[in-house]
Amino acid sequence: MTNLPSLKDAYAKYFKIGAAVSGYHLPLFGDILKEHFNSLTCENAMKPEPIEPQRGVWNFGEADRILSFAKENGMALRAHAPVWHKQNGLWMFRNAAGETASREEILETLQQHMETFGQRYGEEIYCWDVVNEAVAHFEKDLVLRPSNWTELVGPDFVAESFRIAKKCVPDKVQLFYNDYNEWMPHKREKMLKLLRELIAEGAPIDGFGMQQHLSIYADMDEIRRSIEAYASLGLRLHVTELDVSLYTVYETGRPTITDEMLRKQYDMYVELFRIYRQYADVIDSVTTWGVADSMTWLNTSAVRIGDRKPETAPGYRMNFPLLFYADHRPRPYTEQIIEDALK
Ligand code: GLA
Questions:
Q1: Is the pLDDT of residue 266 over 60?
Q2: What is the mean pLDDT of residues 145-151?
Q3: For residue 178, which atom of ligand 1 is closest to its CA?
Q4: pLDDT in tens, 40-91
Q5: Are 334 and 323 in contact, with CB atoms under 8 Å apart?
Q6: Which atom of ligand 1 approaches the CA of 180 most closely?
Q7: Is 133 a catalytic residue?
Q8: How far is the CA of 140 from the centre of ligand 1 (A)?
Q9: For atom 6 of ligand 1, which residue has the closest CA?
Q10: In the predicted model, what is the mean pLDDT of residues 83-112?
Q11: Ligand 1 site: residues with CB under 6 angstroms?
């Protein structure tokens, strides 16, 4: 390690510095987490499928361990993500007779899920990504992505989820809508439409989570424009899942990593944090999706085209998208990001 102050100390006057973790990360990355981070998100442990694998059967173990680690080390906890098109319990969409549930039954089930969750964690979390990725990315003419939620509950499932969540956690817990590719103009327009509607109809939403799963080819001007647009709605902003991939999602094979790619990544991280600091009056936390480059979802998902992994996927591919090397040293841009915050 260098003599630089930690990320979290350098950024104390701007926003929280967070990481998404699973239980097994805690012993592996405890040193980095304790030194540099003051906020954690459960990577999976608080999603319905892992935490309530069957109706009424709860598996709190991993989430509890992450919470204890956070408390022991003075870190805040973000909760994530009960209403999504993935990692839901399929039981959420079935009634007691095992048939496809009605809208009312699903909303009742969601309420029971959120009540139990809220009773256990409501006092411990500072925010909750209530609805994740509801907006359609590929379907050009649709605002909402088709899912069990849209099909079985209807398009107001987003607003309903916020209303239910509000009843289940203390007022101080900020309720967030969270989504990806939020900087791409076509998706940004849909997202802004959804958020404006939610606000207009009085849904209890406090903030927007910009996932910021980026690649070195992302457009910085659009990223800045997006932050401005979301901030103009009067919502709080969190960067919730930051990583900067060296590849585009469409690249196949194992492209050679060039100095040029690493330079782009360096410039991009430095510029991103410069923008985040500029908007620190609306941004409360910046969270990376993982801790160090040895373990990132981008290593295992070799080729992703949207949510589809094609037959031709060449398997495991290394990516280096985070703030720390596999051996726990800070990446060069991380040192720069720290220095820039101290100027
Ligand atoms: C999305 C979700 C996260 C996580 C990542 C991939 O961005 O919001 O919970 O599953 O995908 O790991």
A1: yes
A2: 97
A3: 8
A4: 999 999 999 999 999 999 999 999 999 999 999 999 999 999 999 999 989 9
A5: yes
A6: 7
A7: yes
A8: 22
A9: 297
A10: 95
A11: 81, 132, 180, 211, 241, 297
H-run or E-run covering 153? none
The rounded Å distance from CA 137 to ligand 1 centre is: 15
CB atoms within 10 A of CB 279: 17
Do you find a cis peptide bond into 97, omega within 30 degrees of 0? no
Examine residue 81 and say whether the peptide bond preceding it is cis (omega within 30 degrees of 0): yes
The DSSP letter of residue 284 is E
241 given a catalytic annotation: yes
The answer to whether residue 301 scores a pLDDT higher than 90 is no
CB 165 within 8 A of CB 175: yes
* Active-site annotation holder among 43, 133, 160, 182: 133
Whole-angstrom distance, CA of residue 291 vs CA of residue 139: 33
pLDDT reported for residue 140: 86
Indicate left, alpha or beta for 146 from its phi (over 0: left) and psi (-120 to 50: alpha).
Answer: beta
Res 157: pLDDT: 98
